[in-house]
Amino acid sequence: MQLKSLATAKMSAKAAALLAVGALTLTACGGSSTPAATSEGGVQLINAGKLTVCSDVPYEPFEFQKDGKIVGFDMDIAAEVAKDLKAELNVVDSSFEAIETGTALTQCDVSISSVSITDTRKSVMDFSDPYLDDDLTLVASTASGITNLDGAKGKKVGVQQATTGAQYAKDNGLDAQQFEDTGLLVQALKAGTIDAALGNQSVLGYAIKDDSNFKRVEDFTTGEKLGIAIKKGNTAMATQVNGTLKRITDDGTLKKFETTWFGEATK
Q1: pLDDT at 256 over 50
Q2: Does 128 share its domain with 141?
Q3: Strand, helix or coil at 190?
Q4: What is the pLDDT of residue 163?
Q5: 234-250 pLDDT tens trace
Q6: Are residues 46 and 96 located together in one domain of the fold?
Q7: Which of 66, 94, 118, 205 is most buried as measured by Cβ atoms within 10 A of its Cβ?
Q8: CA dihedral angle for residue 58, residue 223, residue 105, residue 236, rounded to 10 degrees
């Protein structure tokens, strides 16, 4: 997702909710019903018997509300990590600004929220092994006449604030309108208040995959890889998380999740 923080009302509201521990809780399959201060592999959990995960909701198809539950690609992975820890999954809706700066990790064991691995972020948090390659794409309405990035200049282009997409737009001369989350960005695109959106292939590809009024007009190879954010120096958690990622990669579970949530949008 992103590179640079922007202070927003959303951040303040979500930070307050985070500090109040206004968590939405999901129980992972195979979760233990008996809380314990230390879980599998000697991992210390902030809340006994629970894996507390910070995530910026909504960011479809990674994390979003459906039928009263938080679901998505990231949430499926989070559930697998919790299962291996024999812990319940406790999801805290946090601002992405808090997640990318590492602030969220004062209240959560890990952050799983389509977090791109960058050198800047590595200075304040550790990362798991990458679990998804996720480059950028420019999506435009067929009526806009936009066929590439140059053609988008002077048009109404939207980005999610504080994301790699927002930075890429700025670096390439686009005066983009910024939205506080991807849900609002996609709504604006489909309502016609913007002509195009620049963001991650997975999210935007998912948003338009069944809509012939929109198309991916240009992709941008950025080498962007997503990882699970872990408090700096927490090697026990990193080892545990990487073990889960290896398991679900080797047994095909991760590929199954990709097919479920991304379909043709994944590479």
Answers
A1: yes
A2: no
A3: helix
A4: 87
A5: 999 999 999 999 999 99
A6: yes
A7: 94
A8: 130
Residue with tokens 């590479």: 267
Structural domain includes residue 144: yes
Q: What are the distances in angstroms from CA 147 to CA 141, 153, 194, 243? A: 10, 11, 15, 43
The reply to whether 98 and 172 lie within a common domain is: no
Q: 4 in a domain, yes or no?
A: no
End-to-end CA distance of the chain: 17
Segment (H or E) for 114: strand 110-116
Residues 114 and 237 in one domain: yes
Predicted pLDDT at 183: 86
Q: Domain containing 188 — which CATH number?
A: 3.40.190.10
Domain of residue 166 covers 135-220
The residues pairing with 215 across neighbouring beta strands, listed in sequence order, are 140
**Domain identity same for 164 and 253:** no
Name the more confident of 4 and 99.
99
Contact 144, 195 (CB under 8 A): yes
- pLDDT grade for 30, boundaries at 50, 70 and 90: very low
- Per-residue pLDDT tens over the stretch 190-220: 999 999 999 999 989 899 988 999 999 999 9
The count of domains in the chain is: 2
Question: pTM for this one?
Answer: 0.71
Same structural domain, 111 and 192: no
